[in-house]
Amino acid sequence: MSIADHGVLAAQYAFRKCRRYTSPEAGAQVRILPWTETCALHLRETALNCRFAFNMALMDAEVVVADPLRLPSGRLVAAEPPGLFPAGEVARWAFAETVAPGEYPVEVLRERGWVIAARVIVCPGPVHEWRPAKVAGQPDWEHCFFPVDGATGAFGSVEVFEALTDPEAREDLIADFSFGFGEPYITYADEDTGLNLIGFALGGDGKFETWVGYAAAGDAARFLTDYGDLRGRDR
């Protein structure tokens, strides 16, 4: 029996009831789905296509539906917020794969209270193939990792990271993230521009890689950052 078959069987017999997480500070509700509810989907996206090893311990993980991410120009950046990029040069660190401008769902996978993966869903259909995300001009053989030394990762647009080159904007983000510590995710929003950034508190520092999942037609369907060494769980 294949890895995917095992996952499908596990999903069929798993407890599927949804519950909600309520922030005691903000009173906001966050939709949380058991990992098993989307087990078959995630298996295809991580174990089968991306060759991530499926570990049965992930049955205890949960999927948190975060706020949608705004991408005004369709260019995505994964980095530790606020980024500290040189002003006017953020686009150099954007992924070469672009999508149509708009808002896109973001989901966070947590295990024992820590974020182990996060993804931007460009389209809901199945993923046919996964490839490492690249920045413009990066050779095919080279993998793209971003460093984290403050135990925080994020998805954001080129535009929001460019706005965060301003010292006052960085102070606002740091304040938002300080108040949101311990939440499943943290949303920073720029009231003047409408730009936003979705951040995640991680279990530690390191270098993390993002993967692009492609639909059968060749269009980008997902961006997934692996914060929990999902590929090496069974090695």
Your description of this structure?
- The relative contact order is 0.20.
- The chain is globular and about 45 Å long.
- By secondary structure, the chain is an alpha+beta fold.
- Residues 1-41 and 46-57 have low confidence and may be disordered.
- It has one domain.
- The protein has helices at residues 3-13, 39-48, 158-163, 167-179, and strands at residues 19-22, 29-34, 62-65, 69-71, 76-79, 102-104, 106-111, 114-121, 129-132, 145-148, 152-157, 186-189, 196-201, 206-214, 220-226.
- The strands form three sheets. Strands 1, 2, 3, 7, 8, 9, 10, 14 and 15 form a nine-stranded antiparallel sheet that branches.
- It starts with a helix and ends in a 9-residue tail after the last strand.
Features:
4-stranded antiparallel β-sheet, 9-stranded antiparallel β-sheet, alpha+beta, 4 helices, about 15% helix, about 240 residues
Please outline what is shown here:
The protein contains four helices and 15 strands. It is α+β, with helices and mostly antiparallel strands and 235 residues long.
